[in-house]
TrEMBL record:
This is Delta-aminolevulinic acid dehydratase. Keywords: Heme biosynthesis, Lyase, Magnesium, Metal-binding, Porphyrin biosynthesis. GO terms for biological process: protoporphyrinogen IX biosynthetic process. The lineage of its organism: Bacteria, Pseudomonadati, Pseudomonadota, Betaproteobacteria, Burkholderiales. Homooctamer. One of its GO terms (cellular component) is cytosol. Its EC number is 4.2.1.24. It comes from Pelistega indica. Mg(2+) binds at residue 251. The active site is at residues 211, 266. Pathway: Porphyrin-containing compound metabolism; protoporphyrin-IX biosynthesis; coproporphyrinogen-III from 5-aminolevulinate: step 1/4.
Length: 343
């Protein structure tokens, strides 16, 4: 039956000039009205490096603008985070070489640098969230994230046992989040079990779930002093191959099942496809880590006058939100928060 009989119907849509996407882009008010993604200081987690001593503000040459603090110099930074509204500070230690061992046991010392830092921060600024990285690489004499066998292979279950102790030590000191970045199998479940059975039922686990064996971590390894110990060896036997996508989804699924409260994709910018997929697939609180190498690239290009620092910084952070991130671990957190405040 011909239903168009008797009516004037054109099957050719006269798109031009009725559809003009530039109408909404024309004015600032109309651009603001249709904006799909926004950045706020609530989105940031600020990673900082701590070392022993007092009065320390030691430069890290491969990360311009980032320093190693001692506990006393970190306190004003924490205060600034509180004032700017940055919700969480992430702690990474630079451990003295004399304390590094093949088994990284210093990671479990209740009076070690990180537990002391957590206690000092929670005492002064209880409203600031504190996240601790769970991994042995800052503490091992070989720079790997776990315990090695004679062939230099990282042993899974032996490492997980130490990681559970490390996470418990951090929780005891008052850490709000423990964030396993080691990529051992089964560590989220084991850590969750250790926390639950020791009455730390509110300690959140942010799992570095999709953590790739990336060359973008170079400057971080300078910062924590693991680069020279690691030498030419790599972390391919535990971190994910950058070529893989479905494997990342399986890792995230496992971590959620084992009790992760939040999941992470790392590095950030080169892995936005993974971030989008993880968010769409699992609908979990999902975080991106804009890692040290990404930070260094933007800083270096800006210092050369090749990129506009502030614009590129904000665009990169917004891109994480657009790709599905609920928040970003970024060395730009303070700079970006200040910029947001001044706008
Ligand atoms: C430790 C750890 C690393 C980073 C965070 N936690 C380095 C690595 O796995 O070698 C990298 C962070 C960065 O590059 O900013 N396991």
């Amino acid at each position: 039956m011909d239903t168009t009989k008797g009516r004037i119907m054109s099957i050719i849509t006269p798109d031009f000039p009725y559809s003009r996407p530039r109408r909404n882009r024309k004015d600032d008010f109309s651009r603001r009205l249709v904006r799909e993604t926004t950045l706020s200081t609530d989105d940031f987690i600020y990673p900082v490096f701590v070392q022993e001593g007092t009065g320390s503000l030691q430069d890290i040459p491969s990360m311009p603008g980032i320093v190693r603090y001692s506990i006393d110099t970190l306190l004003p930074v924490a205060e600034e985070c509180v004032k700017l509204g940055i919700p969480v500070l992430a702690l990474f230690p630079s451990i003295e070489n004399s304390l590094k061992t093949p088994d990284g046991i210093e990671a479990t010392n209740p009076d070690g640098l990180i537990p002391r830092t957590v206690r000092a921060l929670k005492k002064e600024f209880p409203e600031l969230g504190i996240l601790c990285d769970v991994a042995l690489d800052p503490y091992t004499s070989h720079g790997q994230d776990g315990i090695l066998n004679d062939e230099g292979y990282v042993l899974n279950d032996e490492t997980v046992r130490v990681l559970c102790q490390q996470a418990l030590t951090q929780a005891e000191a008052g850490a709000d989040y423990v964030a396993p970045s080691d990529m051992m199998d089964g560590r989220i479940g084991a850590i969750r079990h250790a926390l639950e059975s020791n009455n730390f039922i509110y300690t959140r686990i942010m799992a570095y779930s999709a953590k790739y064996a990336s060359a973008f971590y170079g400057p971080f390894r300078d910062a924590v002093g693991s680069a020279s110990n690691l030498g030419k060896s790599n972390k391919m036997t535990y971190q994910i191959d950058p070529a893989n996508r479905y494997e990342a989804l399986r890792e995230v699924a496992a971590d959620i099942k084992e009790g992760a409260d939040l999941v992470m994709v790392k590095p950030g910018m080169p892995y936005l496809d993974i971030l989008r997929e993880v968010k769409d697939h699992f609908k979990m609180p999902t975080y991106a880590y804009q890692v040290s190498g990404e930070y260094a690239m933007i800083k270096a290009a800006s210092q050369n006058g090749w990129l506009d620092h502030d614009k590129v910084m904000m665009e990169s952070l917004l891109a994480f939100k657009r790709a599905g991130a609920d928040g970003i671990l970024t060395y730009f957190a303070i700079e970006a928060a200040k910029l947001l405040k001044s706008q």
